[in-house]
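Standup notes
- HV: blocked on the assembly model, inputs below
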Amino acid sequence: MISEDARRRGPPPRSLDVFLRTSHGRTEAAALAALFPLFKSPTSIKPSTALDDGEQACEIYDAYLGYYPQSNVRFEELMLLKRSLAKGDIVELGLCRVCNGLIIYNRIDPTRRTCSHCEYLREHEPDSVTLSEKTTDLD
Ligand SMILES: [Zn+2]
C-alpha cells in the first residue's frame, strides 16, 4: 500500500514525458511494462472492465514500488503508459541499440534508443560504450 505521506499531490500528469525524456525513464517504463502481463487474469472469460483495469494497475504499481521504492513514477503515469502501450500510439517497447536491453521509446522520434545503463557508461566510461556500439553496428 502507498502511505498518505508518500502519495503525491497536484494535477494529474497528461504526458509520457517522465518515461521519454531521459534514458532512466525509458528503462523504468520498460521495467513497468514487463510487469503488465504478469498481472493479467488468465482464467477470466469476461472482458475486463475499467474497474478491473484500475485494480490491476494498483497491483502493478504496488509491486513495482516494492521492487524500486525510490521511483518517481506516479500512479497516473503508469496508467498513461499502460493505455498508450495497449493502443500502440505514442510509445513502443524496443531494445537499447547498444546492449539490447528492454526500453520504451517514442514511436514518432525513435532517436533516443539507449537504456540508462548504457547512458551511464557513456558518461563515465566512454571507451567501453564506443566499443560495444561498434560491435552492434556490424551485426
Ligand atoms: Zn543499453
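- HV (later): unblocked. The pocket of zinc ion is lined by residues 96, 98-99, 101, 114-115, 117-118 (CB under 6 Å). Strands lie at 91-95, 102-106.
- Next: hand off to the docking folks.
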